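seq as requested:
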Amino acid sequence: MHRVTLLPGDGIGPEITAATIVVLEAAGVELQWERFEAVGLAGMERYGRPLPEAVLDSIRMNRVALKGPITTPVGKGFRSVNVSLRQKLDLFANVRPCRKLPGLRTPFEDVDLVIFRENTEGLYSGIETYDERLEIADSTARITRRGSQRILRFAFEWARVNGRRHVTAVHKANVVKMSTGLFLKEAIAMASAYPDLDFDHRIVDNMAMQLVQRPAEYDCIVTTNLFGDILSDLCAGLVGGLGVVPGANIGDSVAVFEAVHGSAPDIAGQGTANPTALIRTAAMMLRHLGERTAAETIEAALRQAYVEGCWLTPDVGGSSTTMDFAHRLAERVASKQGEA
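struct tokens:
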């Protein structure tokens, strides 16, 4: 039995969460959910804070959480719940696999990338000031040696354990010399401890160009917070968009697995949301919990669903509802479990 904190989120979050649970149940893994609905706007309305302390306590206790999308106000209102979770729980590694699903039409056929993004520093540190007299806003991009070392070590270790061969560090040390220069310096030093892995580094704007020209040449990409935020979305676009890629935020003691797309309030309640991203995220969570066979079963069934293409959701060319897709996928998962 694995006890897991569950944050369904808002917008389409509850729908895709329900669909994902259907698939997880078919995989036969015993999961006990500790569910929290009042997060984000609901948390503000009920508790006066978007991230109640009880949620943090639950994640610390259970050590694993599965999270749906939560709306973040733009330019006003409360701070991003995602950022708060990462900083309060010290989830320093954001892991974003971007692997193409067969049958899904995309510009490239052979993309299989993993982006490792430092999650707690950089321009997202929250160090901001505003001078009302001069009308000047300042944000500090704080990068530390310790923060750089631990995301770099995480990326190199993950690559080694998972049979990857190539790690690329991304920076802007030609212009932002002190902060991203520190990151680059630590990346070069870290690479020397992993002689079995190929290593190179790229300036971020050049990296963006190369990814849209020849993404198959890259494997594992590790970078700072802002650059990672941008490049991971770019790579998601190479394989079909944010609706089909998983994500995880991992620290030394806890991990939060989340769909990286938005809450899409404009289609909430319509039953057309695609749960693929959260289902793939749940498979990542199962691997983290040591349930590798169940994770592989879900992933294989999902690939089969996209190859057949006849019962997908409308955003990827099908006509099924969110739950119809989930139930059909669950049938395939249960069938594969029976074969095993």
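The chain has eleven helices and twelve strands.
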